[in-house]
Amino acid sequence: MWKFCSNCEKGRKKPARTQNAGGHKTMEQSNQREHAMKTFLSAATLALSLSVSSLAVAEPIKIGLITTLSGGGAGLGVDTRDGFMLAIKEAGNKDITVITEDDAQKPELAVQIADKMIQSDQVDILTGIVWSNLLMAVAPSANAQGKFYVSTNAAPAALAGAKCNPLYFNAAYQNDNLHEAMGEYANKDYKKIFIMAPNYPAGKDSLTGFKRYYKGELAAEVYTKVGQTDYAAEIAQIRASGADAVFAFLPGGMGISFMKQYAQSGVKTPIMGPGFSFSQDVLPAIGDAALGVKASGQWVKDLDNEANKKFVPAFQKEYGRLPSLYAVQAYDAAQLILSAASKASVKDAKAFGEAMKAADIQSPRGKFKFNTNLHPIQDIYVTEVVKEDGVLTNKTVSKIFTDHGDAYAKDCKM
Amino acid sequence: MILSLALEQLLNGLQLGVMLFLMAAGLTLIFGVMGLINLAHGSLYMVGAFACAVVAAATGSFWLGLAASLVCAAAAGAIVEFLVIRRLYDRDHLDQVLATFALILIFSEGARWLFGSFPLYLDIPPLLSGAVPLPGIEAYPLYRLAIIGVGALVAFGLYLLISKTRLGMRIRAGESDREMIAALGVDIRTLYTVVFALGSALAGLAGALVGALQSVQVGMGEPVLILAFVVIVIGGIGSIKGALVGALIVGLTDTLGRFLLPSLLGLILPASTAGTVGASLAAMLIYIVMALVLAFRPRGLFPAKA
Questions:
Q1: pLDDT at position B44, please?
Q2: Which of A226, A289, A310, A409 has the fewest CB atoms within 10 Å around its CB?
Q3: Residue A219: which domain range?
């Protein structure tokens, strides 16, 4: 609690200080004038366009997209950015500006960028962070400064329960969700499972989520180093454990390394994992070693709904590759912001938040709505890796959860 | 079952150690002969992996890819030495660190610019795929055995090169007295380029070999580089023998630590806590070993003559 309060104070004090600095006042005034001008113009446009289109925005919106565009995790960030920008482009809304910056998967850099975006670029909304540890460093302090944060992926348990915030929306899931789905699925076929995840917040959320639904025995619970590339030691343990299945949460490069080494090890125990371990961004690099792996996802490429049938070809046409989970989540985050923008001014946080909470969007996932803690309530599917025209991808096997929320919503008092 | 697991983990540790040796040998050679701290060594490892992945994808042959990784990494090393490193020999270590760190950024963004942010595909050649039974072990991946073999060959080859050939003689001479060997008429600039290219080729070879096991992606070299530095600090900077011993110590400590610590802690703590605490301790273990070695032998296990 104390930490949050110190943040709020900082948030309130800082802008005051910059205004006092000499020279800033005139800029502030001219900004105000420009701003008034813009408001007048956009109000006029709004009046004009109300009869023509419902997409008009009363107020220009500045969005700060912080994501990982360099280093090992860049594939995830590139998909996030591309999915987000696709929705913005499709909407063709001239009043929305998106500023994109690379956090290089470093928490300290993400914090610097967020501060810069809030104080000097004056963004209204922040979004785009892939990793939970980075999100924890950025989102609560952005919220304390009165800015919206719409998460496109990271969803640590800490922000879904008692520390939920009316300015913090999650368009992806809660971290535990996809793991819970695999836990539920594992009950059907397996009695003794070897579970494994990297040693960081999302890794712990992962195994907690799995165990929440899985009823059988655990062969072992192993935490690996974040960014680990050699899994020989863990594979040897799997071989010796006598487990009848392995559940592994290893996003990005970690999953690629593990799957390739596992295929070579001669261990035949079946593997399963959450969707992002076998998402479209890593499948080509894993190769045929991934065939037949079961995973979970709140979106699958072959889901039968109108929005999805439009989204997949549109993404392919724009970027020349298949979209991943990350792309869909970011696409929906952008849609949520766009839909709220068409209904309320972003300066009116309460009205804008309510408009966003209404989730008036056509998600490629099909049904999408927000829980009381502003995390999604959605269906979750089990998928299998298959080869389609020589390209590895996921296909739907069955629906495992219908209208699934998360375990922390009950602790959220807003 | 327990014995076979322990044997398998020993082999895993050996394999990791051998891989680290390929990286550390080049690093320590370059430091020993030229007194240069090369942070960009990890980038040359990445160059090797990318060259192998691209050539293997184009030709369908891993072996051509492997050859390409040696050639490309050596060429990249020679070019970098000629254009950048050459200007750094007389500067202090801080300037060298700054310049070679800049090289890391240039190599990484260059690779991203050429190949994109998504990992490339590189698979193990069919000849070496699969697992074979060994005495006491149910099955062990053939490819990892091959890496151990390659590492042993490289170690032996380096020993022969340095102790039996004319080039090796010059390298040793360069290590002990730079001015004198230049005064004796040896072309020291060419010698430096050759040594740098040799070190780079070894890093490229390691990158290609490991790339087939792991993921070939931008930034893959830096985590290995950190381990390679730990290896040469433990082994004694500038000593090939030290690099070999240091690499095996780090490889075995890391692998056995990851496997034993959580199980040992499991005897006194609940399973899930033991897992996280054990994993965190295991991640620190090699640095603890390094600190201990430095406390008792501040210049490493086999300090090179300075």
A1: 95
A2: A310
A3: 177-297+379-411
